[in-house]
Amino acid sequence: MIKLLIADDEALVCVGLQSMLRWEDYRIEIVGVAHNGAQAEEMIDSLQPDIVITDIKMPIKTGLQVAESVRRKSGRAPKFIILTSYEDFQYARSAIEVRAVDYLVKLELTPKMLEESILRAISMVEESEAASGQPQLDYRRNLQDLRDKFFIRLFNHLFESKEQVLLQKNDLELELDAPAYLVCTCRILGPDTVPARGDKLAALCTSTVQMARETLASSGPCHITSLDLRNFAITLPLPGKEADLWLSDLQKRLNDMARLLHNYFNVILIAGVGIAVEDPYLLYESYQSARRALPVNSQEQSIVFFTNEQQASELDASLFDYSALRPNIRRAFEEMDVQALHEMITRLIDRFAGQPHLLVSATDAASNLLYMATSLLADGEQIVEHIFEHEPEGYRAIYQKHSMEGIIDWLIQFRDGCCSILPGRRQTYKEQVVRNVQEYIKRNLDSKLSLNQVADMFSFSPNYLSHLFAKTAKINFVEYVTETKISAAKEMMQRGEGRIYEISQRLGYESAFYFSKVFKKVEGISPREYMQRLGNLSQIER
């Protein structure tokens, strides 16, 4: 994602900017909102945004002073879009030394004008990235999506081991080292003036989630995961598992957030708060309890804590455990095994039919299927959007089903739609998986990159990944890693980037001797001979 920071001392202007465009359509993540110049400069230093929209007049420092200061001390300054009033417009235009992308008059600002400025800024960011030779732009753009999928997999217990969680956590630069965690699931209700689907609803919900993120982040760390337009989950670190360590503080944080969202957007936020767990690998327990708490008192439009043991036992007595089916369903999605997927979803439908007391379980099962499809399939969200394109709220209609018959109708439509669409996507999906693995290898050339480690990273079995890679890429996994590393080594040698042992270290080899052995096997000559031919003999071992 391209990172955007908004800076203005007027809260309504900040809210207006957040809701004026559907920022996700531009692959933009709003990483922060500042309300004075000093705060803006601090957030630019810490968050490293790519684009900054800033008011020209703010307390402590003006927007121009911030832009000038950041440009002086940073080799990689963000692109600035300056907001002005009529009386400041000429002054802003004359301040060419900050080289702003654009100067926009607040009272004249329209979505079209903002979009044009943003597109110019995006183009300039991309040109700067290309000129600096930074290969990870696409990866950075997708980072928030990848983090969302990581948490969705945690919530739905889709990791096979703690090792898989650790690998992906490190790759996504996530910190999960608190004494305990819990998950809070939130649902956005109203207002009645907004249509049930369309751009207005999308803008409202996106802005609501963004403000929820900013409000909670201002009082402590958290991770917010968008589940769909109206539903999101908050993962909160805790000082310990015991409720008396955090309960009153958390109640205040969540109630303050809900009150602020209601005041700004006229929405009602209901939430279910799950149990605390000490291991992030067990976040699915907290998530499932939060989801069970949500419908319990949803009519009260409140925040419900799942902390009462009697409540827990009563709910558990009415729940259906389908954990034995979950790994097979996941595998069916991963391998696009339509026959297995149809069979297992049919088993769920048969189990729930005529069992109204299992409504909570049926809703959870349907939600799990939805999250597996959107997180495990390369274009999963587009697939389920197509399946439910005639529903007023699309696939999100699952949250409007309050009867077992409604849930079963949704499951049948989901099953039949998936089994109709997936056969035509099978080869494309496999190619996308292999491309993702190849990109991961290129980003991590400084690691050993064993088949087992990469398979864990992508939640596949080593045998399946090896077979898929060889069949799709027409080269086996080990050969691809070796050739990619040696190709990178040759490029380093051509640019004169270090001695042989330094290059071997940068490419994750245990020793220069082993690196030289592999290099000669691939190229037919040693690294020393290759560098001699390039005329870089002075770089070899001096």
Written description of the protein model:
With 542 residues, the protein is of the alpha/beta class. Helices cover 56% and strands 11% of the residues. The protein is built from 23 helices and ten strands. The protein has helices at residues 11-20, 37-47, 63-73, 89-94, 111-132, 137-141, 143-155, 162-171, 199-217, 247-265, 283-296, 309-317, 326-335, 338-352, 359-376, 380-387, 404-443, 451-457, 462-473, 477-494, 500-506, 512-523, 527-534; strands at residues 2-7, 28-34, 51-55, 79-84, 102-105, 180-189, 223-226, 231-238, 268-273, 303-305. The strands form two sheets. Strands 2-1-3-4-5 form a five-stranded parallel sheet, with helices on both faces. Strands 7-8-6-9-10 form a five-stranded mixed sheet, sandwiched between helices. A hairpin with a 4-residue loop joins strand 7 (223-226) and strand 8. Helix 2 (37-47) runs parallel beside helix 3 (63-73), helix 15 packs across helix 16 and helix 16 packs antiparallel against helix 17. The longest helix has 40 residues, at 404-443. It is globular. It starts with a strand and ends in an 8-residue tail after the last helix. Residues 133-137, 308-312, 314-318 and 537-542 have low confidence and may be disordered.
Brief account:
With 542 residues, this protein is an alpha/beta fold. The chain has helices at 11-20, 37-47, 63-73, 89-94, 111-132, 137-141, 143-155, 162-171, 199-217, 247-265, 283-296, 309-317, 326-335, 338-352, 359-376, 380-387, 404-443, 451-457, 462-473, 477-494, 500-506, 512-523, 527-534, and strands at residues 2-7, 28-34, 51-55, 79-84, 102-105, 180-189, 223-226, 231-238, 268-273, 303-305.
